[in-house]
Amino acid sequence: MIVRHDAGRRPGYPAAAAVFAVGMAGTTLPTPLYGLYRQELGFSELMVTVVFAVYAVGVIAVLLLAGNYSDRVGRRPVLFAALAFSALSAVCFLSEGGLPLLFAGRLLSGFSAGLFSGAATAAVLELAPEEKKSRAGFAAAAANMGGLGCGPLLAGILAQYAPWPLSLPFLAHLALLVVACVLVALLPETVDHPERWPRLTPQGVVVPSEARSVFGPSAFAAFAGFSLLGLSTAVTPAFVSGPLGVTNLAVTGAVVFSVFLGSTAGQSLTEKLGARRALPYGCFVLVAGLAMVAGSLVAELLPLLVAGALCGGLGQGLAFRAALTSVAAAAPAEHRGGTISTFFVVAYTGISLPVVGVGALTVALGLRGAGLTFTACVAVLASCTGVHLLRKPLPEQHGG
Fold first, then answer.
1. What is the pTM of this model?
2. What is the pLDDT of residues 228-241, one digit of tens each?
3. What is the spatial distance between Cα 147 and Cα 149, in angstroms, rounded to a whole number?
4. Domain limits at 55?
5. Which residue range or ranges hold the Major facilitator superfamily (MFS) profile domain (predicted)?
């Protein structure tokens, strides 16, 4: 049973959304700094993508092992645990102990994101009054994608214009985490009679038969969209400083921020369009964005890359929120949590495996060739998914 305790006298859903945003910002904070790590430690672009992919491994592991844990122990304990993992991740980066600690930092960051994905989203929704549920749903989506976008923007500005480029971004984030801990301590608990640290019960991969016809195309759309997010956060800094010749880290952070800005805007439009239309339209907008990204690599134009990032992010946001809405509506109530966790597992696989492929392709094709191959493959996947959804639209009751 979910209730709200003392909601009128304690911080509400905007405070929970702020905590969510701070936590997610930490997961993308290293994005504009990978070039500096490469100079300092001397590893390849392939290793950059592997370091990034470790993050997705952490997220997927938590989703499978503890995706519904906050339903049992309460939202606040899980939020505190997520903030602790985020702080430990920052400490790993601050220690500058070489590649092993970079891997450890990214893995801990993945644990943090996996815990935040369920607990923070639920807390934001549950703390909102009934008349503000829709606004709270967008607040959760905006906190998620907005936080992911603000991480590289903050790190890029601090690394470019302030001292200690490999330290100050993480010190700043630790300060924000302290504020977030205070907010969590003040938040009311929304789970009635929480258990006291019960044993973990891994839920595995769950897709009930009633949801499979909706889950398939929705998962493909999420995979394609998250592939673009993975490219943006793991490889875009190398694209910007390599083929485009821009070495300003603040610009790099702003380019990555534009993808998540577009995603937030796309998610805000999904409800107006309805999931049934937003899902195929989002796929086609994503394809247009990927075409612009590819064009920017050929023409070496930074404005075209930014336009592609915004457009691709818009399509990703449209398709992602529509896909999530559709999957949640299609799944029976007793399997809804597990089905949504499985959906996120597919999405985070999309953020990791294709990006590692790009890193491997750079060895044979160079950065530009790898980027063009990647955009072509993801565009084909998104196009096929969009065409399929136009020919066989989702059932009206699942599409909103």
1. 0.90
2. 999 888 888 888 98
3. 5
4. 7-192
5. 11-394
